């Protein structure tokens, strides 16, 4: 590795060595080559283009999808002493003029720009007269129509490739299956030999998936382990985000909501509060979060089923970007499965796209229903491998299975005998032989399946039906009243009678009580906690003075290192990872003073 790159790593970012494949990628790009980089969130993707942009002559151009993300990264780079700026529609005429003067004057290392802005004729013409060190396209999965977050504006970037053919280009993402990767390489004319696949594993994240039992009680128990920490709660609808945020505030949490239907100013205000706060819960739809650079998100909860494994991986990946222990929870039920299926069928997408979306939903349901290691199943979807991780709910408490062949036959027969038009609760009542006016009025107390399921309780039958829906043996008519009907695969099952192993539902609180507390402070020794909180308070004080998020001053990980090492001089402070020269000069005395007060 060239001394220049290592020097940049140490002096700007405060680290002594590269991690994973960073060294090979940076070397490759500094030499003038193209690169496709697939690296898990928190793996250091940004350094892979920032360091070559600083090391190579010219301006590094970074294409990024969101204004908030660009502002975040520019703020962090400036704190580290890097000359960075963002070109966006929010700039005033004077600020825009100043920015272009800096661009043409060669006083910037990195310029961030959204794809829509970059593709404007006047912007491309102005950049045509500028020497570019590289072009980096972040969140590159947005370019692929097979990706979970396709954005048409990204497809137009083909023209940038043609216009700046001799400039090294990079495509970077944390989420791309094989078809998505192939499409990115093709459109950006990057050779397969220039692809660097670093894997998908995020070992610091704990994965847990539960059947919906009492969603608010489940969420409350989950959040109890995260007092004083920031996190995200994802919901499927705008209304649900607002109701859940209001309920969480009643429970004592500093909770905000975020969805596309909100006033723009309110959305931006809530996002800023989340990014600048240290114990804020954001309740949001998927409109929130792509590329969010907040490293201290300690938890992500889905109280509704995501759309695919890619979406789940991307959204859970917003937890623990700093590498510290973080936790995720996904809740799902039969209604979620049916609603997601309805979204696919009612979309105006071509049949090929619908088939692909159905396959993606099936893969997600397979992850939810697996009796094996969650991480193994998640990584296998992306073609990656892992041993059982020991850091997911199924590793902590492997689910029990039972031969559900007869139970499935009873459930399917009951659906058939009652006319394939009633919902889950009614079918379960018939199976259990519940005597009520409605069942008697419809004559279903006289069908052969009335009362044949008393070997299971109500909750177990609901879990069985949910698994039959997930296995595509049962369809749900959400356009009507949620009536259950036997799918084609269900009819085949009744005819062929293959053995069917199903999961035994756990008691509602068993799994949650057994999960260990997950928090950044779990990395702290008890003797260091008081100093850590004092350092955190000093960081917040400085951040508020500058109106920047606390993490652009120092990450929690750096504060933990400071609390443990307790440096007493500038020379000792230099040895703490994550403190470059600019931050050493700017903040060293203030933090050394806090440490001295706690000697």
UniProtKB/TrEMBL annotation:
Entry EC number(s): 5.6.2.4
GO biological processes: DNA recombination; DNA repair; DNA replication; SOS response
Family: Belongs to the helicase family. RecQ subfamily.
UniProt cross-references to PROSITE patterns, sorted A to Z: HELICASE_ATP_BIND_1, HELICASE_CTER, HRDC, RHODANESE_3
Protein encoded by which gene: recQ
Domain named Rhodanese: residues: 215-270
GO molecular function annotation: 3'-5' DNA helicase activity; ATP binding; DNA binding; four-way junction helicase activity; hydrolase activity; metal ion binding
Species for this entry: Neoaquamicrobium microcysteis
Ranges for domain Helicase ATP-binding: 26-194
Name of this protein: DNA helicase RecQ
């Amino acid at each position: 590795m060239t001394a220049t790159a290592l020097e940049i790593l140490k002096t700007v970012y405060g680290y002594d060595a590269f991690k994973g494949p960073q060294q090979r990628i940076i070397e490759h790009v500094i030499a003038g080559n193209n690169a496709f980089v697939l690296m898990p969130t928190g793996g250091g993707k940004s350094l892979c283009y920032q360091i070559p942009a600083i090391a190579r002559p010219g301006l590094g151009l970074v294409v990024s999808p969101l204004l908030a993300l660009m502002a975040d990264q520019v703020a962090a780079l400036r704190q580290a002493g890097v000359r960075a700026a963002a070109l966006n529609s929010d700039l005033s005429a004077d600020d825009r003029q100043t920015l272009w003067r800096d661009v043409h004057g060669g006083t910037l290392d990195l310029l961030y720009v959204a794809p829509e802005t970059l593709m404007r004729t006047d912007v491309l013409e102005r950049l045509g007269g500028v020497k570019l060190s590289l072009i980096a396209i972040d969140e590159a999965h947005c370019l692929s129509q097979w990706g979970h977050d396709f954005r048409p504006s990204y497809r137009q970037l083909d023209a940038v490739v043609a216009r700046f053919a001799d400039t090294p280009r990079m495509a970077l993402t944390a989420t791309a299956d094989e078809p998505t990767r192939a499409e990115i390489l093709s459109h950006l004319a990057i050779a397969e030999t220039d692809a660097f696949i670093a894997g998908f594993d995020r070992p610091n994240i704990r994965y847990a998936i539960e059947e919906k039992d009492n969603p608010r009680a489940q969420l409350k128990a989950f959040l109890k382990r995260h007092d004083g920490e920031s996190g995200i709660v994802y919901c499927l609808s705008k209304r649900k985000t607002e109701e859940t945020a209001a309920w969480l505030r009643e429970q004592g949490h500093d909770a905000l909501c975020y969805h596309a239907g909100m006033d723009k100013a309110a959305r931006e205000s809530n996002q800023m509060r989340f990014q600048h706060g240290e114990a804020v819960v954001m309740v949001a739809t998927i409109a929130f979060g792509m590329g969010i650079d907040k490293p201290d998100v300690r938890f992500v909860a889905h109280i509704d089923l995501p759309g695919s494994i890619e979406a789940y991986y991307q959204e859970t990946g917003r937890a623990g970007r700093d590498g510290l222990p973080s936790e995720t929870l996904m809740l799902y039920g039969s209604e979620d499965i049916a609603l997601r299926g309805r979204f696919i069928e009612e979309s105006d997408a071509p049949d090929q796209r619908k088939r692909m979306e159905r396959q993606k939903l099936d893969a997600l349901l397979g992850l939810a229903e697996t009796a094996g290691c969650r991480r193994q199943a998640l990584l296998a979807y992306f073609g990656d491998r892992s041993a059982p991780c020991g850091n997911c709910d199924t590793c902590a408490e492997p689910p029990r299975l039972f031969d559900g062949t007869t139970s499935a036959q009873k459930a399917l027969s009951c659906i058939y005998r009652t006319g394939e038009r009633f919902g889950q609760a009614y079918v379960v009542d018939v199976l259990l032989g519940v005597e009520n006016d409605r069942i008697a009025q419809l004559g279903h107390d006289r069908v052969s399946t009335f009362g044949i399921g008393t070997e299971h309780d109500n909750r177990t039958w609901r879990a069985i039906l949910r698994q039959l829906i997930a296995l595509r043996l049962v369809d749900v008519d959400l356009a009507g009243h949620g009536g259950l009907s036997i799918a084609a695969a269900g009819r085949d099952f009744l005819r062929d009678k293959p053995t069917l192993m199903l999961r035994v539902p756990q008691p509602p609180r068993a799994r949650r009580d057994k999960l260990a507390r997950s928090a950044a402070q779990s990395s702290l020794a008890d003797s260091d906690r008081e100093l850590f909180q004092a350092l955190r308070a000093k960081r917040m004080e400085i951040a508020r003075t500058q109106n920047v998020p606390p993490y652009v001053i120092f990450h929690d990980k750096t504060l933990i290192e400071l609390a443990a090492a307790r440096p007493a001089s500038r020379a000792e402070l230099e040895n703490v990872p994550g403190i470059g020269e600019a931050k050493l000069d700017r903040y060293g005395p203030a933090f050394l003073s806090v440490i001295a007060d706690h000697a």
